Amino acid sequence: MCMFMSYYGVNPLQLVVVALELLLSLVLGLLVLLLELRLLRLSRLARGVLLRLLRRVRRLLHRLLALLAGAPRVLRELAGVLHVVRHHDVVEDGARLHLPQLEAH
Question: For the chain, how far is it from start to end, CA to CA, in angstroms?
Answer without folding.
Answer: 128
